[in-house]
Specification:
Chain A has eleven helices and 25 strands. By secondary structure, the first copy, chain A, is an alpha/beta fold.
């Protein structure tokens, strides 16, 4: 490493899909790479909902960054939270010291966005981190433990009402997984229960589910969720949640202690501490080359970026965009090193998919729609192949296979919350 | 169940080895059984040290009680923390309502005992619960992340000094596992490090390790730990730990931020809230039949019990004693139901074992000593067979096999502590 000390230093903020891919893409570039993240692992977010519904354990979708980068000689990892960035002196200020960069790839990702609804932010559950997911898992199971000893039918009904907000893939997958957790697994754990008392309500403010997919697939999803006894309500906008009642626009209330918010994402809060122009949802405005205005040495990718390419609608805040932009950012840094002009980012939409449950998913691949079992198999293959680390893949497969064949869930643990400790 | 409502009600406090075995032993008895525990899972404590050293994930050694009892028609589970017991009215007072019993099996287990050393209780780590284990895992990995950026050699040395207190099986296994985590795994994660800077110190107040095993095996263990670069200090008693320095009797100090306390156990705190006579370590004094004095309907087993059988030394506070006593308690309840006289408990010492690391363990089985690879194979088989749940067994085996062949660890996750959240 000592010899490489003089090489240009590329700092990547964030070890998500974008940051990780950017680091790997710079493997053979004449640079030193440092990935900075507040967690020491890369999190495979698409399966967070399965941790939240007791299907797999957090360790199965989190992979230590030092292990990921071990084989990459020009890359190092730094566990630290970035507090702000001094753009003039090209220096990061973190909770564990400062770091100087020549090039910066900002891949800080997104965070849950309740659009200013404070009560939801306080009393609801997001689904972006491991602690979010284990908190939901504990909540779901705790509600059943409380309900089994609750004699007042109305109180019991409230305990057993689970509200998911947001008709995108996360909301659909979460609602479907909760339904199966209850009907296939908890029904055996709580034999004295009449499970018709349990309700899963999926609230979507617009008039359809899964905007990224075709109308046919959205309709299929609606039907599949209804078959799973998920009460899907379109055109239902949440105004507040006090921890006991969900308040809908129009005055309706739903008595529930559990609200999972999958209805919005915005750029990570860190962006607010970096003095570059922002667009909607706190995203940094970048040129088609992914470079920040007036700061050609700064590249912003993924959920944190809003590319100004004159397009009608911005790129969706999803992993494929982040990963593709990561490759461009890495390539453009090499261009700059060679005094070549950087290339504008071109998004290749590979499609979108969502699983609704056992044998059921919907997928849009290169404009072709799949639904039901075929889509589910595609979903399974795509996700299992993407999971980093052969061992994790194997363990996740075993858990999935077990759940599939034995209608069981691995990890129905109620973990002590911090206050309990 | 409704028909069984009139059957005598046996409440078992604690879902540990004793409580679980007691419940299963009452499967065919003419009673209703309710297991009460503050956690909804049975924890396989012997492998906690592997969670603490990033070998396996918590979910692999915790098994939901409702799943365990699912097939047992006369048993139910209740998630609740017992606050106290009204002996006269035979009623439990819990944080989730009251419960009446006809017979009570007190299997509350043990808790970490620092023998009144407050500073150790505050700044040290116990190893009795999942949160204990994940806290240690986070601490070990955090110290390395801090050390890799620490330029002051003295501070770095303190960060990389890990002190384990207690020369019993837990202390030996913990020290050995930390040594292998560092030398076999973290050495690859932190290539820039000189790992000779990392020190593992095992402190034992008496003059030998593993009192339950023969002198030969204790000597073998001492040598094996030294080969693993564990600095074993016999006759070293801890007086205090302020979070930065371990203070030994005699005045010596060891600069370290990590003290793992495996030097003592006492009966669970709940015992103090139950008005029956206690002996040493807060254990309830019970007759040879395991019944409490003046309360023939109350049986106390495992770490919570101190059997008055005129024996020189009480039974060790280990799982086999608890499990064997559970069978006697269950059988004696049936005797009482038939107006037969209960049997006195007879302990069958099956032996004791401890693993020191890869291919190395010591075991004493029916008076025969094993060491090295044979003992390690025995340890492996015994533990893998005891793990509840085929799936858990399979997943643990995969993780072990992976670690064994690839010198890797599955779950090196630094989890946000509660304050961070």
């Amino acid at each position: 490493m000592s010899g490489s000390k003089n090489l240009p230093h590329v700092i990547i903020i964030g070890a998500g899909f974008g940051g990780l891919r950017a680091a790997l893409s710079l493997k053979n570039a004449p640079v030193r790479v440092t990935v900075v993240d507040r967690n020491n692992y890369h999190l495979f977010q698409p399966l967070l909902y399965q941790v939240a519904t007791a299907g797999i354990s957090p360790e199965e979708i989190a992979y230590p960054m030092r292990a990921v980068l071990r084989s990459q000689k020009n890359a190092a990892f730094r566990l630290a939270e970035v507090l702000d960035v001094n753009l003039q002196e090209k220096r990061l200020h973190t909770d564990h010291g400062d770091l100087n960069y020549d090039y910066l790839i900002l891949a800080a990702g997104g965070e849950t966005n309740t659009f200013g609804i404070q009560s939801v932010a306080q009393n609801g559950f997001g689904l972006k981190s491991i602690s979010d997911a284990t908190a939901i898992r504990t909540q779901l199971l705790k509600m059943f433990e409380l309900a089994v000893n609750e004699t007042d039918p109305e109180k019991r009904r409230a305990l057993l009402t689970f509200v998911v907000v947001g008709g995108g893939p996360t909301g659909v997958e979460c609602a479907g997984a909760i339904s199966e957790l209850i009907r296939l697994v908890l029904s055996k754990d709580y034999p004295t229960f009449d499970l018709r008392e349990a309700r899963i309500i999926l609230l979507e403010a617009t008039q359809r589910l899964l905007p990224a997919l075709s109308d046919d697939l959205a309709t299929f999803t609606l039907g599949a969720l209804k078959n799973k006894k998920v009460d899907v309500r379109l055109g239902a906008a949440v105004e507040g949640f006090d921890g006991e009642n969900v308040h809908l626009k129009g005055g309706e209330q739903i008595a529930s202690h559990t609200l999972i918010w999958a209805a919005g994402v915005r750029a990570a809060g860190l962006l607010q501490h970096i003095d570059i122009p922002k667009g909607s949802l706190g995203r940094a405005l970048v040129q088609p080359t992914l470079q920040a205005k007036d700061h050609p040495e700064i590249f912003v990718i993924g959920d944190a970026a809003l590319v100004e390419n004159g397009a009608v609608s911005p790129y969706p805040m999803v992993a494929p965009v982040a990963m593709q932009q990561a490759v461009y950012a890495a390539r453009n840094i090499v261009h700059l090193l060679k005094n070549e002009t950087p290339e504008p980012f071109v998004y290749r939409d590979l499609g979108s998919m969502a699983t609704i449950g056992r044998n059921q998913a919907v997928a849009m691949l290169n404009g072709v729609g799949f639904q039901g079992f075929p889509a589910w198999v595609i979903w399974l293959l795509v996700h299992i192949m993407q999971l980093i680390g052969f061992r994790n893949r194997l363990v996740v497969l075993i858990n999935w296979a077990w759940d599939y064949f034995f209608y069981d869930r691995a990890v129905r643990l109620i973990q002590q919350s911090c206050d309990d400790r």
